[in-house]
Amino acid sequence: MTHLINLTEHLAQDGFEYTYGISAFDLTGNGVPDLITPDTDVGLYWLENDGQGNFTRHVIHKRTPEWLERHQVADINGDGRPELVFIDNINGCLLYFEYEGDPRLPGSWRTRYVDEGTLTGAYAVAVADFTGNGHLDIAASTWRKGNQFVWYENRDGNWVKHILEDDIAETRAIHAADINGNGKTDLLGTARVANQVIWYENTGDLPNQPWVKHIIDDAPQPIHGPPVDMDGDGDHDVVMAHGMLP
After folding, report:
1. CB burial of residue 73 (10 Å; 0-12, 13-18, 19+)
2. Interval 141-185: pLDDT, tens
3. pTM for the complete prediction?
4. Where do the structural domains in the chain lie, given as residue ranges?
5. At residue 80, what are phi and psi to the nearest 5 degrees?
6. CA-CA to 190 of 20 to 30 Å: which in 111, 142, 217, 240?
């Protein structure tokens, strides 16, 4: 059965050069979500939502680092405020932006690097507590020249890089979810050229024990798709888009 939903388009802001990736999160605490988006050649912005359909643009940073794309919003440093976790595609970096006080004020945002240049071909990012120590860790994919899945262990603000899988052709999506329902956060990833949709099982003793790899599907060119409970049975299914060409 097909259900049609009528949606009305509203313009939040225009005048960007090349926006890539957007997220919604209440940065001001007024009960309505604001918008966060990078303009990859120009900088990083957040759009303050007044709850009446009006958005005010605020600058988080200008130009450097450039080419910010996919990101997650999460409290990485445990200060009770959200941080913006980004990959820097061109420079092979993983970083986050944190703020103190009022995020509207100039100078309130700071840049913190998790990986300053070794994440060649950085593509996508996922945030979760993989070790169960109460601190959020970060996983990332790297495409083409990188061809890796990696994760960064958060040891009280010190980051330790671990290679999840090396030399897997053109990794793309990466998502964090408890796939098998054992209370441990797993990873779901795709490798477009390797033709793999992969579940990396977290057995609960990271980093001492390795992730267990399960290939869910080997259909050609998987790219993007999240874990989601499609049939309402309480566990995660996978929705996947394949291919870049018609």
Report:
1. middle
2. 998 889 999 999 999 999 999 999 999 999 999 999 999 999 999
3. 0.94
4. 18-118, 121-245
5. 85, 0
6. 111
